[in-house]
Write a structure and sequence with these properties.
heterodimer; A: mainly alpha; B: alpha/beta; elongated
Chain lengths: 98, 321
Amino acid sequence: MTLSERIEAYREYLMEVLHGLYHGMIEHPAYELIEKEAEDTDDVFLFACFADAFGIPSPISYYTAELLPYLGEEFEQWERRMWDRESLVERKGQQYHF
Amino acid sequence: MEKFVFFGGKGGVGKTTVSSAYATRCADAGLDTLVVSTDPAHSTSDVFDQQFDDDPKPVEGHDGLWAMELDPEEEVEAHMQEIKRTMSDQVSPSIVNEIDRQIELAHRTPGAYEAALFDRFIDVMRDADEYDRVVFDTSPTGGTLRLLALPEFLESWIERLVSKRAKSIDLYEKAAIGDKDARRKAEEDPIIERLQERKEMFEFAGETLRDDAAFYLVLNPDELSIRETDRAIQNLTEYGLGVRGLVINKISPEPDDDEQGRGARFLRRRHETDRERVATIRETFDEPVVAEIELRIEEIKGDLLEDVAAELDLEVAAATS
């Protein structure tokens, strides 16, 4: 292996490590943060659609029930999340990796 | 005259009679007319002595007249079955049960009945091309008013839902920078599509009610129904739906002068009070009184219906649109 090849290989290795570091420290937490936010917004959306699942009468659940076939998976997860979620702090706290 | 004519008012004032009479008159004038009863306690069948159901049926003995009675319960059931059918195509069987419960729940809430009625309402207005005039005999004041207020209310609600959904999709797309595929995409989201469809439906209803419908209130010469009419007018005006006129029904007739028995004295007093109230109605309301109908001894059906129809001072000519 020539010197230049070895330098090349080393540089590739270094790039990978650096990218991994960047991804782990900056990129991924950022994605995660946005996805969490998206999930939260989704939860609010689902709650607005199906408030009656939690005993709050909703005049539009008759119409939003039409969405259920398309929301299937999401709806079930959401319902479980809503029952399990202990507090908003707990949910928000998940984004910090101690 | 608008294509859709609504008769509303307190329970028991004779909305069915008045709307049936008006419809007969329209039909006699050569207009293809449909009477739609939205009152859960249907009595159109009694007026015409013929059983009607959820589909328009020609009224025997009257050319160009059809009648139908909306049945929200049937509609609720059909709606639920439809959703369940779509679901079995879309969702894996493992979670069907979970969602089934929610669907049942959504169709058992008190609002479901109103929503279903409203859906049928819109269906009728949409499919009314073959008729020149559609007469709605509505349920007592409260229910009808809520029904008519629905489009605006639902429209804004759905708008909020769509914006929430769009926001979360937008976030998912942002989270998927680089080579990752977004978990959801706006163009192919069936949820937004369905919601938009609904929204268009409500917009249609709102527009039709505002631009293509006329409202009349039926009342009796008594305190209660006068007060309720006053409230109804205020509410309807709030929703941007003006009341075109009032129909005073069940005014007691006057006995002949030579009659002096106890019954005649009672009737004379009664007639005087009624006349006073009619005068009050004419004074206090800005809306014109389009008909004063006398109380009849028998139930109003058959020929009597034609008599009542003649008393209605309502134009029947077709809309010039």
